[in-house]
Records
---
Amino acid sequence: TLAQPDFALPDEYGSLNALQWATIFESLLNSQRLALWPHIPSELSSSILSEMREDARGHFLSELPQANIEEAVFSGTNAEVVEILDALPQKTVVRLVNKLAPGTQSQIETSLSYSDEQVGRYADQEVYTIASTALVRDVLREVKSAEHLHEGNSYVVTDASAKYLGEVNINDLLNASAKQSIAELVHLPETQIDAEQSLLDASNLVRGSQKAALPVVDGHGRFIGQFSIQDALSVFQEYYESQMAHLGQVSDEDLFAPVVLSAKRRAIWLGINLLTAFLASFVIGIFDAVLVEVVALAVLMPIVASMGGITGSQTLTLSIRGLATGQLNSVNYQYLRRKEFLVAALNGAFWAVMVGILAYFWFSDVFVSVILASALLINMLVASLSGMAVPKVLDKLGVDPAIAGSVILTTITDVVGFFVFLGSATIIFLR
Amino acid sequence: TLAQPDFALPDEYGSLNALQWATIFESLLNSQRLALWPHIPSELSSSILSEMREDARGHFLSELPQANIEEAVFSGTNAEVVEILDALPQKTVVRLVNKLAPGTQSQIETSLSYSDEQVGRYADQEVYTIASTALVRDVLREVKSAEHLHEGNSYVVTDASAKYLGEVNINDLLNASAKQSIAELVHLPETQIDAEQSLLDASNLVRGSQKAALPVVDGHGRFIGQFSIQDALSVFQEYYESQMAHLGQVSDEDLFAPVVLSAKRRAIWLGINLLTAFLASFVIGIFDAVLVEVVALAVLMPIVASMGGITGSQTLTLSIRGLATGQLNSVNYQYLRRKEFLVAALNGAFWAVMVGILAYFWFSDVFVSVILASALLINMLVASLSGMAVPKVLDKLGVDPAIAGSVILTTITDVVGFFVFLGSATIIFLR
């Protein structure tokens, strides 16, 4: 029914916040999104767009009329506007930025001077800052009459050239005498963020600081804006969701992206996978003579590949996470590799015996059982070593291990599994 | 060198925060953790333990001397203490709780009266609360002289029986006259958290509220504590990391858990996988006659299973994420299933033709090529339908789709792939 042009929203929609609206929009088709858009509270338009996941936002904005986009852009904070502009074509960006009020325009230009990996681009510039020359009584008057409540317990202090001087606590303001100058109360916080730092590093800094927000400062010491713990949370969410998507070999974010676009994106992964599958087939093809001789080998060979695949995936998952969280480093890498090898050896020995016995009851061929058990153990050991080596190598090459790791690993466990299993069978049965 | 009992830490360790310390401890063996522990700033001990990931914390605490554990427990906030107690055996918990000061003891008992899935257990009780009968001047005096800076811009107000009345903003305090009663300034925030809500729901509420923290209130309206955006971030991180671990079929969190423990945990996944691998082998075994006749089938059959597996995994990843984020619901489920089917049909048709042609160049057998291409297309279509159906069914059964989804899906794509490919080959070649 949301797809109908005329409808009234139930009352409970009135209390939705921007995040909840964003989830609703993500769960709709573009046509439904367009029909629902006029019904949102207009003061939330920029927040809703910036809270939507990147891919869904992009598809929606590609069909939202220019007038609606402008309305959102003109009412948003600089950080929200940048998120919206990121999803628009360059030509539209230039046109929209030129239409902004001069003050906002220079804010946005500052943001856009940083790349979409850098925290400077998304720092919130609309922060209440105090001039170091102000007096305590002026600031207190200002704080009292502030229309919007300031989050947090301290205020940013800058000098006349916008250089960041530090912050002043509300406690100190209350304890100071009315005529004291702010310059006497200002202190530097323990942590500042460099505007060129990566979003993930900045998010970790905010998280570790236990503060609501940290100041973002450029190379000349100028105050660029604030990066808040809420911003950090969005960054972490995006990071984890993309890691999970990579593990599932899919890059779609918008559930309702057009069919052809989704098909194209996934075709790439399928194509890469086909290459590795043909490689495995090629290895099997080398040993086709023994398959004709002993058909049990063809029946059992997927077991070797599959158990190796799982073993490798387990080690790979741990080492990718260890690299991402910083728990895994050059000092403990050797130890972990040894540990993973031992784990694979224990499980390999146990499951090799189990599989060997089961296969014997099935085919009553002790040679097949022994070859199967040995190939399984060897493949699981190779899988654990590869699970450690592949992410390390990819990391050194500057490739995100989460993207390519599992494809490469599966190729290794398939090829090694089939090669060892069918190769040794060829030696034994066709000698 | 950290394993040596006597050593001095480099100076830069002095500026580490609890989160950074926690990461260091996670990256060490238990023996190294024990050696490093005496060197940490003692005021951070409880924070470091509570910031550590659950599994690593558990292993470390199982070897940390009781005296060190007590020291941490006696200096922690209630929320930190609960995180530490969660990792200790029940007997130790009872003994430690009895040793606490009466006030802390009742706080901890309140926390422990909620399950480890409920937000009430982890709400921060050490929040500065104001009695509704207090006067503005008393509160301002208190705020000015506060030893520790209060995060945020509002204060919690309760009545004599600890019932939650709402909050009072610092702006309103500054604007009020000194003799006004707090009761006149208090207002209810837009969102409160029920102490029995799940951690994930509570985290979403805090995130959506754009506030630094929300009040947690029990069924009788009593104020239990605050749940902050920092807490929410930890919950989200734990959630995403466990989802990723499930996708990699591994449940270890501590990289440095004992070898035997890790091996046991992973053996479960390997065992489940072995069952599904044997099921696939069983299907192949049904058709062993045709494999002997046409060896190309044995060579090519992994391609059908593998391409189906990837297709299914792509749809599965999207639908699991859609369910987790609330983007996927009963209204749009049908649409998404249709879309995923179309995507699989497009890619299936394209790759089936490609694979058919390649197989023809390899084996020069048009029957093999046609059978291969048809089986590939059918398996990819089944995979996309299964990728939608499996998470929905698991969700209805109350099982987390991320845990069992990919194993079930791989079983389906293997069994269907081998059955269709070898079954149709049997009909054609052995007719």
Note: The beta strands of chain A are 129-131, 154-158, 164-169, 193-194, 213-217, 223-228.
---
Amino acid sequence: MEDYASRPLDTLNAARNKNVMVDMKNGYRYTGKLIAFDIHVNVVLNDAEEFQNGEAKRKLGTVFIRGDTITIINTA
Amino acid sequence: MEDYASRPLDTLNAARNKNVMVDMKNGYRYTGKLIAFDIHVNVVLNDAEEFQNGEAKRKLGTVFIRGDTITIINTA
Amino acid sequence: MEDYASRPLDTLNAARNKNVMVDMKNGYRYTGKLIAFDIHVNVVLNDAEEFQNGEAKRKLGTVFIRGDTITIINTA
Amino acid sequence: MEDYASRPLDTLNAARNKNVMVDMKNGYRYTGKLIAFDIHVNVVLNDAEEFQNGEAKRKLGTVFIRGDTITIINTA
Amino acid sequence: MEDYASRPLDTLNAARNKNVMVDMKNGYRYTGKLIAFDIHVNVVLNDAEEFQNGEAKRKLGTVFIRGDTITIINTA
Amino acid sequence: MEDYASRPLDTLNAARNKNVMVDMKNGYRYTGKLIAFDIHVNVVLNDAEEFQNGEAKRKLGTVFIRGDTITIINTA
Amino acid sequence: MEDYASRPLDTLNAARNKNVMVDMKNGYRYTGKLIAFDIHVNVVLNDAEEFQNGEAKRKLGTVFIRGDTITIINTA
């Protein structure tokens, strides 16, 4: 009944290996290539960069982000 | 016993492909076309726009919003 | 053993299609006709209105309210 | 092994149809007759009254209180 | 393999009908005789007393304390 | 596949009957001998002592600490 | 369908016995060798060091970090 295209995680799946922007509850933002995610919305980014208040703070390489700290993921 | 029309997610289902307004615990608001949602109230909007304190801040394209950060979804 | 009349959700069920007042953790209040609810206490109101600090702020039509943001629902 | 009298919800059960005092994480207090509760500690009070900082604020009739907003229930 | 004496709830079980001190996330403290507890660490105290900032505030009789508001229980 | 030595709770198990330091979300710290823990990371310490801002505040004897209030456990 | 390389915990698995940096919701940071983790993202670090506001505060030896306090784990 529920068609595949209608699930939120499909949107993340379509963004694999593409650049995304992850906004956090603590106001930080991470950008990078989306390598992995799971149903808890834990995500892994490659070539990640950390921003605070719009300013680049650190280059991070590979970063695991715990899902419950995320507010939005901008995929395109 | 419980008839279909009485479930909250039915309201979201009826709003698919329509414009909705999503208010967040952190005071942000996102508007856009509702593309997908799940039982955790994770949602995906297309043609999304971000507002803070009533002011438009960014155009976001496609955005995945984690359900536990949402307070209300205004569907009509 | 547990008789039907003793469950909290029965109180919400008895309030379907009646006006209720929903108070939120963030201090907002929503009034409207209770259309739907589920075990997570997600609710949908029709003809909803939003209040902050006792002042009417917006008329919202149909609104989905995420259960984990609710403190009380005043049904009568 | 675990005897019935030793479960916290038994205390709530013994308080059905009696007056209780419910203290909330946000500092509010509700008093009223305990009509219903469930394992999430969602409760329903009749003839409820709302207090803030020790002052009576509103008479509420029937009120559904979401369990995760409660700190203590004083039953006697 | 896991021996009985090594589980945290055994410590609470050994404290039944003895005086305990319950510290809360909101800074309150409750003392009283431990009557009941469950796996969520919901507890019931008899002859309970409420303290704030080290000062006795109220005598409460029987009090149900929701587990997720508790930080520590001092049993001896 | 997953070998036993690689699970975080094994670290706690190896620390049984040894002195540990438990840091809390509210800034408190408890030291004592680790007597028990479970999968929720609820722990029990004997000969416990409470610290706030680095200062010893109380000797507590046996203390049950609710897992969801803990940030780290320093085992060695 | 879902291939193994696409899960976030695989990234943590690949980082076993390597140095990682763990950022916390309370602003603390822990560095050390990743010894263990589980599906709750509880982790254990050896040769751990604690930082606050970019300053080294303590050397901790072995530290168990509760998953729900973590925001990101920087693995490379």
Note: Residues 32 and 48 of chain G are 4 Å apart (CA to CA).
